[in-house]
UniProtKB/TrEMBL annotation:
One of its GO terms (biological process) is tyrosyl-tRNA aminoacylation. Signal peptide: none annotated. It is found in: Cytoplasm. ATP binds at K238. A motif ('KMSKS' region) lies at residues 235-239. Belongs to the class-I aminoacyl-tRNA synthetase family. TyrS type 1 subfamily. A motif ('HIGH' region) lies at residues 43-52. One of its GO terms (cellular component) is cytosol. Its main location: cytoplasm. This is Tyrosine--tRNA ligase. It comes from Sphingomonas rhizophila.
Length: 408
């Protein structure tokens, strides 16, 4: 449909919209009022990864369109565990671990959003502030009657777990109730009218929409994004090295830049729309590039995405490091490095420790394929030991795109 509001037009042209509970109603509201909308993020680790980036960008788009984003940190729901897409229960974290994770994660949001007290400034809230104060009987009496077991069993987060005969605890089964309660609480206390999330959250979001309407008579809305996958059908952000973390202390800006630079040809234009602020007309020009020239679009993606998260200087440094490494064969201090305590290390161990291979078997296979080099010399023996002479660093390469330094 053709949207009247700048919010939905922006989300639509950038490729974020998959499902909306009431598109016409939300469009009308966003055309005349400042809409407050939220997305929830559980604090299971000290950093979010790139799989959460599309949600962060949606909050950024809200603010760019003149609306008010809420970052909801799940200090309370992290204690329960979202069963969506999981085959086993989440590891239980202490209150101190959760608080430390939230403090660490907040630094990333401050790169993407402007926080403050203005009408469109972002705010960060913690659902532990209200969930931990709820009494069990209170939840059963006030919220429980609005959920039926029959319907809860139809949601994918529950149904898929049961179909795989994987146990689901009663604790996890309550997650969707708590998420629905979050929406109602934010509607009541913050005037929040919109919850957004990935397509796998559709059922949980609809629960919150219906709960808010039934308990308070307030019309609120839900919007989900498509599942973001790569051209080969893989999950966004899942790589040989594991998760692509957003915090710099979890993943270097250089490695982050390289992740985007290595985007598949078929994904680059879509990712430029989703993950950068480049104007649509500039992206359309990059979309016309063919053959080797499409690498210019990948560099533009890597530069823009890295600058947004880590700053212009870090992006420029990463780009220059890549240029010198690939074009001049130079070693550079900004490459990912591994400290060698005793001055020597097995080549297989070096590859896995740097994250260039996911296992020893994969490392041996790459060596057997002739894909591993030390200071430009191919290493074909998986038993080879790298020795640092006089403490001089050694450059280790896997193929043409992965490079690191072994240091004393």
């Amino acid at each position: 449909m053709a949207y009247a509001s700048s919010l939905l037009r922006l989300l639509d042209e950038r490729g974020y919209i998959h499902q909306v509970t009431d598109a016409e109603g939300l469009d009308a509201l966003a055309s005349k009022d400042v809409v407050t909308g939220y997305i929830g993020f559980d604090a299971t680790a000290p950093s979010l990864h790139v799989g959460s980036l599309v949600q962060i960008m949606m909050l950024r788009r809200m603010q760019q369109a003149g609306h008010r984003p809420i970052v909801l940190m799940g200090g309370g729901t992290t204690k329960v565990g979202d069963p969506t897409g999981k085959d086993e229960s989440r590891k239980m974290l202490s209150d101190a671990d959760i608080e430390a994770n939230i403090a660490s994660i907040r630094r990333v949001f401050e790169r993407f959003l402007s926080f403050g007290d203005g009408p469109t400034d972002a705010i960060l809230v913690n659902n532990d502030d209200w969930l931990s104060g709820l009494g069990y009987l209170e939840v059963l009496r006030t919220v429980g009657p609005h959920f039926t077991i029959n319907r809860m069993l139809t949601f994918d987060s529950v149904k898929l777990r049961l179909e795989r005969e994987q146990p689901m605890t009663f604790l996890e089964f309550n997650y969707m109730i708590l998420q629905g309660y979050d929406f109602r609480e934010l509607s009541r206390t913050r005037g929040c009218r919109l919850q957004m999330g990935g397509s796998d959250q559709w059922g949980n979001i609809v629960n919150g929409v219906e709960l808010t309407r039934r308990m308070d008579g307030i019309e609120v809305f839900g919007l989900t994004t498509p599942l973001i996958t790569t051209a080969d059908g893989g999950k966004m952000g899942k790589t040989m090295r594991g998760a692509i973390w957003l915090n710099a202390d979890q993943l270097s800006p250089y490695d982050y830049w390289q992740f985007w630079r290595n985007t598949a040809d078929a994904d680059v234009v879509r990712f430029l729309r989703l993950f950068t602020d480049l104007p649509i007309q500039d992206i359309e020009k990059l979309a016309e590039l063919q053959g080797q020239a499409i690498n210019d679009a990948k560099v533009a993606l890597a530069n823009a995405a890295t600058a947004m998260l880590h700053g212009e200087e870090a992006a420029a440094t990463a780009a220059e490091t890549a240029r010198r490494t690939f074009e001049e064969g130079a070693s550079d201090d900004n490459l990912p490095s591994l400290k060698i305590v005793e001055g020597r290390i097995g080549i297989v161990h070096a590859l896995t420790a740097l994250g260039f291979a996911a296992s020893n078997g994969e490392a041996r296979r790459k060596i057997g394929e002739g894909a591993v080099k030390l200071n430009g010399v191919t290493i074909g023996d998986p038993q080879f030991e790298v020795t640092l002479v006089d403490g001089e660093p050694v450059k280790i390469s896997l193929g043409k795109k992965r490079h690191g330094l072994l240091r004393a």
